[in-house]
Amino acid sequence: MLHPTRFRTTADEPGRRLLVLAICCVSAAVVVMDISIVNVALPSIRRDLHASVSGLQWTVDAYTLVLAAFLVPAGSTADRVGRRRVFQIGLAAFGIGSLLCGLAPSVGWLVAARVVQAVGGTMLNPVAMAIVATAFPEPADRARAIGVFGATTGLALALGPVLGGLLVDAFGWHAVFWVNVPVVAAAIGCAALFVPESRAPRPRRFDPAGQALVVVVLGCVVYAVIESRRLGWTSPVILGLLVVAALGVLGVLRHEPRRTDPLLELRLFRSVPFGSAILMTFFALCGFGAFLFVTTLYLQEVRGMSAPAAGLCLLPVGALTVVLSPLTGRLVGARGPRLPLVVAGSALALGALASLRLGPATPLPAVLVTFLLFGVFLGAVNPPITNTAVSGMPRSMAGVAASLASAGRQSGTTLGVAIAGMIMGPALTRGGTAFTAAERGVWWLVAGLGVCVVALGLLATGRRALESADRTAALFDDLDGRP
Question: Which residues of 265-293 are buried (b: 16+ CB within 10 A; e: fewer)?
Fold first, then answer.
């Protein structure tokens, strides 16, 4: 009988590291793609399952909300019990959830299946990033590897609507979920063969109280934003949810510093680059989540395009991501993240301002040129943000740091969809000029988020910011076994 270890090369061989990178990239890509691939299927889901606007929002946000809420404990659990083990369990759960999504007979069942899918996803993206960071210990190699990882996840986010449109047209909306099953099955086998097991030098204890507080805060905020259109901001339910969320934040700030191993290691935020990276990824993905949610509905409901045509219109975003992300990764490794961050934030703001002029009769070339700006943004934003979040962090905190960065990404996407739906309101289903008039509020929001990314990018790359990162890393030297 053949034993898996026969296929493994030594840890120092470049080929082994590239295989590990490829496996992690593919696995993380299916998780990220399921954030965007479902957007192009929303009109079909609405017609087939008779879903309301809030039902469509929950179809997207139930997934990203669970990802955001449980990414941090998934990363710390992987640091404790083994990153490869948690990685494989996550793949299996994600595959089962994907299968159930395709079988869902109603929106309620679909949202529940998306939760199962997301539980598996929480064990993939941050753990994969930690595996990559561990496999490439040299800073320059790690920056390039993280650039490839960021390019892959960014490409998956951008190409999700393209692949989704083709699958919906050929096989129906169920296929956007079923396509994950063979991919994760292959990834489970490859992980067993080639991915080395790794753990943090000092395992962290679980923090159930901290986890409960995080779930309460995120759940209350997202529920309040999504349901505010139906209930109104002055509704006792909405006001009560916001009060509970505020109390939850205070609880986190009071509880976490008292624990030896907190769920949210607040000391990491003493590093200006790390804290800025979390905010940047939140703002960036909030803007891109709103863009995808509104744009896929605009193309199909306002312009009357088919699902494949709408997906192909977003191909410029994916094409630029393919071209720019590797170049950005090399630029970050050679000269640092400042320039890519400024370019990314500027492109997001300019894309949003250009979108203010889009209407039902806007010539398609003008629409595609506008989408190019969002492609520049996505191609330039992931490598520098990811590198800023992980670089300089101690080895013992690799999983926690990576999962906090991913949690910021998913939280941003969740709120981007929720806020976009809230701003659009009934116009989401009316189409025509009512839709394009309402979406201007979304574009002004996205433009402001782009400006925030530029400002934080400049802040995070200054001399004092880098000094704060060194001081923060020194706080954890004893955990890494260094004097």
Answer: beebbebbbbbbbbbbbbbbbbbbbbbbb
The CA distance from 436 to 10, in Å, is 57
DSSP string, 125-167: HHHHHHHHHHH--SHHHHHHHHHHHHHHHHHHHHHHHHHHHHH
412, 286 Cβ separation under 8 angstroms: yes
Beta-carbon count within 10 A of 12 CB:
7
Q: Which of 414, 410, 323 has its CA nearest to residue 375?
A: 323
Write the pLDDT tens digit of every residue in 445-462.
Answer: 999 999 999 999 888 887
Query: How far apart are the C-alpha atoms of 5 and 20, rounded to whole Å?
Result: 14
Helix axes 83-103, 107-122, angle to 10 degrees: 170
Distance CA 460, CA 467 (A): 11
Contact 278, 404 (CB under 8 A): yes
| pLDDT tens digits along 321-370 | 778 877 887 888 778 888 999 999 999 999 999 998 888 888 989 999 99
Q: How far apart are CA 359 and CA 322, in angstroms?
A: 28
**Number of residues assigned to the chain:** 483
* Tokens standing for residue 179: 């396509």
Please answer whether residues 168 and 7 qualify as being in contact, where contact means their C-beta atoms are separated by less than 8 angstroms: no
Could you give the maximum distance between any two Cα atoms of the chain, in Å? Answer: 67
